[in-house]
């Protein structure tokens, strides 16, 4: 026949490529290409969705501007009665001399392109200016906060050492994290969720801690508690409180390295940190100005230690001590190295599957696939005899093609994904059933096997195409909307539909044509 | 071997009112159950909440587990046996979205180990925040809607050659739905309205095949959801996946019958329409039953052997395949006749434009 010439090489090529892709899954290391990825529900692991509290990033930008403005006003000798927050996106400045408005405007123009004077009002000789962030800038800050959080978290996870983590932004302010095969989920969560904002602040020695604890907290100071091993919020009462000045002398932004060292004297781990040149200069000045005072090292609003500054510290290095074990010190060093999150994050979705459950799922899934598959094979053989054997053969090829597709596209096999394959086994025979029923109809009309086969295939082809396109539409929509396991189902279902189209319309036709046209088998067993 | 003998001629069209009545009862019961239960029984995927699957090394009483959970602030959470009795596995279900950081699972493990006195393994934790649940819910509804819409474009195009008309209609609907979704309209309400508008448009535009298919699909989805409501099975993400698959599958069956109707309309253009419909259904009956049989074989094997995590998922598919098979025989095609009688302009043909 004329079209054997192209069909045999095409089918052969497809099958060879399929085998090449599938082999690594069963015999790892034979070829360089990859095994089929298993989803978290099959190999165990953790799926997290974090929400970045981006509005906090806006607030801290505003706080920074407020602090900087104070400095600029001092430098430019602009007299004012205070800079206060006005809502969440604006500051209100009370100028004593209305003539300074121009100066403020110029200053804003010079230092922040996108901070504008929104309104000004005169009251008893005090000029009140409302200074706000533009919506564009707020959007920018929020976007950057999410991106930076993603980068930081990726850094932390890389340093923690998880194989093939998948970290991506989802929507505007969500981050999806997938950590396959991870065992210590608690530790990973702690590592990911820590804001890790490192601050150096002075202890307030001028005021009495006891009276502050009674509620008389002096303005400009706050009470922070010591970080304790394995803490929970309820045990706050037992933790040591500190009265700390609110002003931050320095943050961890100048940090270049952080590593765990063991104190030779007490045999306790501590974290050694190094600053860059600018940081080293600031640290030197801060320590120089505050000799004999106590400097609190604060991480995420918890005091780790508050040593007394003995003398000016040059060289740009410091150490964080506290009551932590080696593992905690190790994780602390990681988060410090990776940098702080620009805004706090909250876990809004979590799915954790233990490795043993994943193993159970895969065994059961494959077992039910085997049983269901064999039952269908037997059924087809009994119902269609010789033709059933061909259908069975292409069904096996069908599964091979699905597996190859999974490996080739780097798709992930999930438990619903296995269900998708099982479902396709049931549905894949449909194409063959349609063809066989047509052939039987043609035979009943008294046609010869050859014309029955030709007519059967020709008439059934369009129907098969129509029927499968609709399933494919459903699968593609599902792929768009689904996450994780459900997406896995959509993938196997789509692959299954495509594979069954190919096997039924090309491969099984090729076999029929070969048997009845080339070999000239006379009787049709169907 | 043959289940359905060739030349079979069941009077399906003649009995269509019985089938319609039967379907109507099923749909009413489904909707009734949904009203009584105030909507589907949403699992944590859609309602938010936490599920913890624990495995005990030895048999324990559920009350002992509850006592342990009460100690860590989980009093009032539902604990039920998961899987078979010998597995000693339990599912803890709470509506709270727990703060799951900071040694949470360790805490639960210890508390339950203490109260039961046996070793405990935490096998799975799933926590979904309320906002995420809401998002997933509307995403699922949109997915269902878009699937129906895309499929109807395809049907109108393939069977009535009305690609452009149905395409414009679908684009307008998608645009309208998108526009309203920006306005904080309740998504379930929006989708429900959109579906009704879609059906009215089909009616007005005389897209009969598409309308027949959509009616059959809604029929299948409503009955499956209703059955889940009656059996009080949780509605989760995989169940939505199952529903969309049912949509695809049931349509598959429907299209094969429609295909035959189209073919027979050309071949026997002197026969009355109801006879052609009946003949087409009968001719494809063997294939419909066979494919459903093989699909059910694998699904039943999945249901019994696939493990407890996909139990509900495979049940949804089994129900859907049975209902879908029924609807493509007794609903999708007979409704063409119904549409013809009620809405047609007196012409004796369902499809004037069929080629």
Gist of the model:
The complex is a heterodimer of chains A (526) and B (355). By secondary structure, chain A is an alpha+beta fold.
Number of helices of chain A: 13
Assign a percent range to the helix content of chain B. Answer: 55-70%
Point out poorly predicted stretches of chain B: 343-355
Radius of gyration from the alpha-carbon trace of chain B, in angstroms: 24 Å
- Report the helical percentage of chain A: 40-55%
Strand percentage of chain B: 5-15%
- How many β-strands of chain A, per DSSP? 19
Report the end-to-end length of chain B measured between terminal Cα atoms.
35 Å
Largest interface: A-B, 79 and 75 residues
What structural category do the secondary elements of chain A indicate?
alpha+beta
- Chain oligomer state: heterodimer
DSSP helical segment count of chain B: 12
What is the average per-residue confidence, as pLDDT of chain A, rounded to a whole number?
Answer: 84
Global shape of chain B = elongated
| Main sheet overview of chain A | 6 strands, mixed
What does this structure look like?
The complex is a heterodimer of chains A (526) and B (355). Chain A is built from 13 helices and 19 strands. Chain A is an alpha+beta fold. In chain A, the strands form five sheets. Chain A has a six-stranded mixed beta sheet with strand order 11-10-16-15-9-12. In chain A, strands 7-8-2-18 form a four-stranded antiparallel beta sheet. In chain A, helix 10 packs across helix 13 (484-518). Chain A is elongated. The two termini of chain A are 23 Å apart. Residues 230-237 of chain A have low confidence and may be disordered. Chain B has 355 residues and is α+β, with helices and mostly antiparallel strands. In chain B, 66% of the residues lie in helices and 8% in strands. Chain B contains twelve helices and four strands, in the order ααβαββαβαααααααα. In chain B, strands 2-3-1-4 form a four-stranded antiparallel beta sheet. In chain B, strand 2 and strand 3 (89-94) form a beta hairpin. The two termini of chain B are 35 Å apart. At the A-B interface, helix 6, strand 18, helix 10, helix 11 and helix 12 of A face helix 4, strand 4, helix 5, helix 9 and helix 10 of B.
């Amino acid at each position: 026949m004329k079209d054997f010439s192209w069909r045999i090489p095409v089918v052969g090529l497809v099958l060879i490529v399929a085998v090449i892709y599938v082999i690594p899954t069963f015999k790892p290391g034979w070829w360089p290409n990859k095994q089929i990825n298993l989803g978290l529900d099959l190999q165990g692991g953790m799926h997290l969705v974090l929400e970045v509290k981006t509005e906090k990033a806006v607030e801290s930008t505003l706080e920074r501007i407020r602090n900087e403005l104070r400095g600029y006003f001092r430098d430019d000798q602009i007299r004012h009665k205070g800079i206060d927050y006005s809502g969440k996106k604006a500051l209100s400045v009370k100028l004593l001399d209305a003539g300074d408005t121009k100066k403020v405007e110029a200053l804003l123009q010079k230092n922040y392109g996108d901070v504008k004077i929104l309104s000004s009002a005169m009251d008893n000789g005090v000029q009140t200016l409302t200074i706000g962030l533009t919506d564009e800038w707020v959007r920018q800050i929020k976007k950057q906060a999410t991106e930076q959080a993603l980068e930081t978290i990726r850094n932390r996870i890389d340093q923690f050492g998880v194989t093939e983590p998948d970290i991506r932004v989802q929507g505007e302010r969500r981050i999806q994290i997938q950590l396959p095969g991870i065992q210590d989920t608690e530790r990973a969560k702690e590592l990911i969720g820590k804001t890790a904002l490192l601050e150096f602040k002075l202890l307030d020695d001028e005021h009495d801690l006891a009276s502050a604890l009674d509620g008389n907290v002096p303005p400009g100071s706050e009470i922070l508690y010591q970080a304790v091993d394995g803490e929970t919020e309820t045990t706050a009462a037992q933790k040591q409180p500190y009265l700390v000045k609110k002003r931050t002398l320095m943050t961890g932004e100048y940090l270049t390295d952080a590593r765990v060292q063991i104190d030779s004297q007490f045999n306790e781990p501590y974290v050694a940190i190094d600053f860059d040149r600018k940081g080293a200069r600031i640290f030197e000045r801060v320590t120089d100005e505050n000799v004999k005072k106590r400097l609190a090292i604060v991480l995420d609003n918890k005091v780790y230690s508050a040593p007394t500054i003995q003398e000016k510290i040059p060289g740009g290095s410091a150490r964080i001590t506290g009551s932590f074990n080696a593992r905690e010190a190790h994780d602390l060093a990681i988060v410090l190295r990776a940098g702080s999150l620009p805004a706090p994050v909250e876990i809004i979705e979590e799915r954790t599957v233990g490795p043993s459950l994943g193993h159970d799922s895969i065994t059961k899934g494959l077992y039910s696939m085997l049983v269901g598959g064999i039952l269908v094979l037997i059924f087809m053989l009994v119902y269609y005899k010789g033709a059933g054997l061909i259908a069975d053969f292409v069904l096996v090829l069908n599964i091979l093609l699905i597996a190859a597709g999974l490996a080739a596209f780097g798709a992930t096999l999930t438990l619903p994904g296995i269900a998708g394959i099982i479902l396709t086994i049931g549905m894949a025979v449909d194409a063959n059933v349609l063809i066989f029923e047509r052939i039987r109809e043609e035979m009943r009309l008294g046609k010869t096997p050859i014309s029955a086969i030709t007519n059967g295939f020709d008439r059934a082809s369009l129907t098969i195409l129509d029927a499968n396109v609709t399933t494919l539409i459903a699968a593609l929509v599902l792929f768009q909307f689904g996450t994780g396991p459900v997406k896995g189902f959509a993938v196997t279902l789509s692959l299954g539909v495509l594979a069954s189209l190919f096997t039924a319309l090309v491969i099984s036709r090729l076999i029929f044509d070969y048997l009845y046209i080339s070999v000239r088998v006379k009787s049709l067993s169907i | 071997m043959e289940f359905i003998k060739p030349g079979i001629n069941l009077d399906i069209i003649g009995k269509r009112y019985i089938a319609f009545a039967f379907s109507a009862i099923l749909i009413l019961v489904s909707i009734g159950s949904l009203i009584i239960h105030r909507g589907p029984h949403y699992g944590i995927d859609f309602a938010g909440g936490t599920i913890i699957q624990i495995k005990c090394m030895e048999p324990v009483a559920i009350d002992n587990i509850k006592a342990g959970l009460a100690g860590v602030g989980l009093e009032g959470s539902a604990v039920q046996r998961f899987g078979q009795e010998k597995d000693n596995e339990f599912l803890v279900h709470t509506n709270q979205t727990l703060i799951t950081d900071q040694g949470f699972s360790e805490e639960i493990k210890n508390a339950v180990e203490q109260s039961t006195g046996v070793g405990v393994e935490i096998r799975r934790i799933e926590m979904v925040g309320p906002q995420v649940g809401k998002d997933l819910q509307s995403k699922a509804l949109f997915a269902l809607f878009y699937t129906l819409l895309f499929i109807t474009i395809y049907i109108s195009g393939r069977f009535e050659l009305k690609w452009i008309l149905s395409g414009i209609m679908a684009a307008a609907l998608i645009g309208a739905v998108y526009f309203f979704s920006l306005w904080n309209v309740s998504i379930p309400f929006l989708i429900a309205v959109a579906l009704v508008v879609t059906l009215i448009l089909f009616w007005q535009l005389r897209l009969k095949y598409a309308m027949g298919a959509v009616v059959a699909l809604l029929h299948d989805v409503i009955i499956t959801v209703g059955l889940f409501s009656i059996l009080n099975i949780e509605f989760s993400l995989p169940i939505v996946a199952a529903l969309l698959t049912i949509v695809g599958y049931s349509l598959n069956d429907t299209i094969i019958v429609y295909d035959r109707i189209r073919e027979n309309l050309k071949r026997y253009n002197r026969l009355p329409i109801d006879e052609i419909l009946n003949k087409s259904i009968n001719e494809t009956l063997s294939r419909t039953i066979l494919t459903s049989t093989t699909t059910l074989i694998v699904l039943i094997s999945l249901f019994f052997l696939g493990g407890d995590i996909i139990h509900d998922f495979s049940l949804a598919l089994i129900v859907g395949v049975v209902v879908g098979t029924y609807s493509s025989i007794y609903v999708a095609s007979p409704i063409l006749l119904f549409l013809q009688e009620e809405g047609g302009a007196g012409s004796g043909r369902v499809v004037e434009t069929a080629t």
